[in-house]
Amino acid sequence: MLEDFSVFLQEESIQENSQDVVLRFLCHLFHDKNRTLATNRTHKAALKAPIFYGSNLTLDTRWLDWLHRSFFLQHPPRRQPQLFWSLSKVLNSSAPLQFPVSPSSDQLFRKALFLTDLASGMRASQLHALSHHTAWTVFATKDALVSLAPVPLSLLPFTIPALFEEGIHHPLCPVTELCSYLYSTEAAPRENLFVWPHSLSECSSVHIAQELCRVIELADPGKCPRARVYIKWLPSFCFYAHILSTLLNKVASGAQPVHSSDAT
Question: What is the band of 84 on the pLDDT scale with cuts at 50, 70, 90?
Answer without folding.
Answer: confident
